[in-house]
TrEMBL record:
Domain 5'-Nucleotidase C-terminal: 363-530
Domain of life (superkingdom): Bacteria
Domain Calcineurin-like phosphoesterase: 54-273
Similarity comment text for this entry: Belongs to the 5'-nucleotidase family.
Pfam family, one: 5_nucleotid_C
Chain segments carrying region Disordered: 664-732
Segments crossing the lipid bilayer: 738-758
Record's compositionally biased regions (Low complexity): 674-703
Keyword Hydrolase: yes
Alphabetized InterPro entries for the sequence: 5'-Nucleotdase_C (IPR008334), 5'-Nucleotdase_C_sf (IPR036907), 5_nucleotidase/apyrase (IPR006179), Calcineurin-like_PHP (IPR004843), Metallo-depent_PP-like (IPR029052), TAT_signal (IPR006311)
Compositional bias annotation for Gly residues: 704-725
This protein's name: Bifunctional metallophosphatase/5'-nucleotidase
One MF term in the entry's GO annotations: 5'-nucleotidase activity
Length: 767
């Protein structure tokens, strides 16, 4: 049995791998002993380097059974066997999230089968991930850790309000005189990834200074505080992409990689579920060190080989690789370990019993979309996808969410009304625990985040996958708080035409709280915008458990046949009265046996403009099932911006569509107004008077007057001997000219003013 060195002294597992290592080591020692008696001393040869293999896993999440790309726990044990047979100096370590967010087989027993399987596989040490805290610190400290034969490590978790480490910070294993040390660390975002109440007794510190502190301690030459010849960091934090730039940039992980000091010889990472293998320069050094992650679920494994001088304990070389674990084409295949196979089989048997528990009832099938051949169509809107989104919205209401989105690939079976043969506890209309687990077997957690209206539109645009994708379109299930229209003929990035949340049109700058599963939250299925959501909180709620809780609160459910997304192709307006307009509609029906007949109606207010029977033919890989084309004539008296309503009475589907009609044309009135009058006065007078006066007057008056003049019209007057200061000559004939001018100005309404001004001018210039 290998002896571990402080600070993580644990009882050795009484399981196969550890006893085998002891036997191998003993056999080697006996062989060396017998050889000493069999031959005389030889000339001293250069010391042969000690070769140590370090196997790594991360984000296992209780994937006990082989499924898809996941190899299963028994094969993981076979991996250790394989390498131990090649090199007795083999270690298996983890970087966190080994349990939590697990599949039904492990989840139903609080991950105890996974702990048992990892014990049997000979896991030597692991960092603490965030999912180890899913049920709170008390559960981790009082149930999980005592059941595990390996130490859980974290150097940056402290008792609240102190610098006292809450967990073992490091683990040292000695192999052929070489001490290999592992320093653990946990993501600094722990507080936002689990329930705060569950870790209220912890303080989460920065990773880099904590790891550097322990690395310095293990390299200071003081055996009393622990020493190691080789140091490897196990950290539950990871790169955002598999590109090396994500491990060297100014990101959380990039700063971690560059900030950990030169005493750390390798970094084993996790958390982002990505597989990568990089060689990255140590800070201020030409030397590089491996930075690796084995992805997720036991699909791959990491392998590092250390070559160490047995005399000087100098690390001579370190190599690294990340390889497939399931269906391995390289070393292997790795034979499943019978002991672990039995652990898994026992867990499956328990799950079968627990799975027979009846959760609730349904009145009809909740289906995934179908292709014409009857196979699953991930490009079609489905009653099941929308229902799961509704459930996840309900489950995270306490996080203040507005809507939820669900990826079609996360739905692995239908919820069937008919009883399924061989399913314990099932009957018509009954939903069992096992059925619910079959729908969502990935045990994703639900993540809440903020998206702007523009980002929400971008997410929906990303349903159209990159060119060359095996599935060109992935239809997101949306909660019933969301509806939208799209134009399937538009250019990439311009197809979503309207989005409504809670009945209100979404604007680009609006902000929404959105729930998605952890797969989508990381940008899975090319929904990259979701990886950029802000104020992210992992609610710690498992998608399957959310379904269980939902049926507990809502015992009977019926599928909704309302289409939450409708395709609308409308020519560009404006449209004149009397012209014909054709609206092409799609995505009006579901494709998996739901009601597939109906009539599409286009209305303007209370006026029905046109109707058409809906074509139920399936269009493979798309959401275009349920098509109709409606042509209508623009009615009279309708102008400018208006709103059409597209509806299907049989399903309850209804969406609004903006449309632009031609503006109203207004013809000018040829009569500008009232008649200003045609009589300028009854007697303008012909005699300017015999007394011109000496005062030109300071008030021209505001009324043209009705008098006939003060003179009698018989005087001869005088011949202008005075000096004129006005603009007109002082003659009797001027008055007639003035009225002629006034008459010409009648059309513009200036008669009275002009007449007044001219009369005043005449009076003022006569001297």
């Amino acid at each position: 049995m290998r002896e571990s060195l402080p600070s993580a002294t644990r009882a050795a597992s009484p399981t196969r791998p550890r006893s085998r290592r002891r036997v191998v080591a003993t056999a080697v020692a006996l062989a060396v002993g017998f050889s000493a008696f069999a031959a005389p001393p030889a000339i001293a040869l250069p010391a042969v380097p000690v070769s140590i293999d370090v196997l790594t896993t991360n984000d296992f999440h209780g994937r006990l059974e082989a499924s898809g790309g996941a190899a299963g726990a028994a094969v993981l044990g076979g991996l250790v066997d394989y390498y131990e047979n090649l090199n007795p100096n083999t270690l298996l370590v983890g970087a966190g999230d080994l349990i939590g967010a697990s599949t039904f087989t492990s989840f139903i027993q609080q991950d105890q089968p996974t702990i048992d399987a990892l014990n049997a596989a000979g896991l030597d040490a692991s960092a603490l991930g965030n999912h180890e805290f899913d049920n709170g610190r008390d559960d981790l400290d009082n149930r999980v850790i005592p059941a595990a034969d390996w130490p859980y490590l974290s150097a940056n978790l402290y008792e609240v309000g102190t610098t006292t480490p809450a967990y073992d910070e490091y683990f040292v294993q000695e192999l052929e005189g070489v001490r290999v040390g592992f320093i653990g660390a946990t993501t600094e975002e722990l507080g936002s990834l689990v329930s705060p109440a569950g870790i209220a007794s912890l303080s989460v510190g920065a990773v880099v200074p904590a790891v550097n502190r322990v690395a310095d301690q293990l390299s200071d030459g003081d055996d009393t505080n622990g020493e190691a010849d080789v140091l490897i960091m196990l950290v539950h934090e990871g790169a955002a992409t598999t590109d090396i730039a994500s491990s060297t940039d100014d990101s959380v992980f990039g700063r971690l990689v560059s900030g950990v000091n030169n005493k750390v010889d390798a970094i084993v990472s996790a958390h982002t579920h990505l597989a990568y293998n990089h060689q990255i320069a140590k800070p201020d050094s030409l030397e590089t060190r491996p930075v690796i992650s084995a992805g997720q679920y036991g699909e791959k494994y990491g392998i590092m080989n250390l070559s160490v001088d047995p005399t000087t304990k100098e690390l001579l070389a370190i190599t690294s690789d990340v390889r497939p674990l399931a269906n391995a084409t390289g070393p292997g295949p790795f034979a499943p370990v019978p002991e672990i196979e039995q652990i898994v089989a026992d867990a499956v048997a328990v799950a079968a019993v627990e799975g027979a528990v009846q959760l609730g009832n349904i009145t009809a099938d909740f289906n995934r979309a179908r292709q014409t051949a009857g196979t699953e169509n991930r490009g079609g809107e489905s009653t099941l996808g929308n229902f799961v989104a509704d459930v996840q919205l309900w489950a995270t209401e306490d996080a203040g969410v507005d809507l939820a989105l669900m990826n079609p690939g996360g739905l692995r079976a239908n919820l069937s009304y008919a009883a399924i043969d061989g399913t314990p506890g099932d009957a018509e209309g009954v939903v069992t625990f096992q059925e619910a687990a079959s729908v969502q077997p990935f045990a994703n957690t639900l993540v809440a985040m903020d998206l702007t209206g523009a980002q929400l539109k971008a997410v929906l645009e990303e349903q159209w996958q990159p060119d060359g994708s095996s599935r060109p379109f992935l239809k997101l299930g949306v909660s019933d708080t969301v509806s939208y229209t799209y134009d399937p003929t538009a250019a990439r990035g311009e197809r979503i035409t309207q989005i409504f949340v809670a009945g209100t049109l979404v604007q680009p700058t609006d902000s929404y709280r959105v729930t998605v599963n952890s797969f989508l939250a990381s940008g899975g299925d090319n929904f990259l915008t979701l990886a950029r959501g802000t104020n992210r909180v992992d609610t710690g709620k498992i998608d399957l458990q959310s379904m269980v809780d939902y049926f507990s609160a809502n015992p009977t459910e019926s599928p909704s046949y309302v289409q939450r997304a409708v395709g609308v192709v409308l020519p560009e307006g404006p449209f004149a009265q009397g012209s014909e307009v054709t609206v092409d509609l799609s995505s009006l029906l579901f494709s998996a046996g739901e009601p597939n007949t109906g009539t599409a109606t286009v209305s303007l207010g209370e006026t029905v403009l046109g109707t058409s029977a809906i074509d139920p033919a399936i269009v493979d890989t798309t959401d275009e099932v349920g098509r109709a084309s409606i042509t209508f004539t623009v009615p009279e008296g309708v102008f400018g911006a208006q709103t059409l309503t597209v509806s299907v009475a049989e399903t309850g589907t209804s969406v609004t569509v903006p449309i632009e009609f031609a503006a109203e044309v207004i013809t000018p009135d040829p009569d500008p107004g009232t008649d200003p009058g045609t009589d300028p006065g009854t007697d303008p007078g012909t005699d300017p008077g015999t007394d011109p006066g000496t005062d030109p007057g300071t008030d021209p008056g505001t009324t043209p007057g009705t008098g006939t003049g003060s003179g009698t019209g018989t005087g001869t007057g005088t011949t202008g001997s005075g000096t004129s200061t006005g603009g007109l000559a002082s003659t009797g004939a001027d008055v007639g000219n003035a009225w002629l001018l006034a008459s010409l100005l009648l059309g513009s309404g200036l008669l009275l003013v002009v007449a007044r001004r001219i009369t005043g001018r005449k009076v003022g210039t006569s001297k």
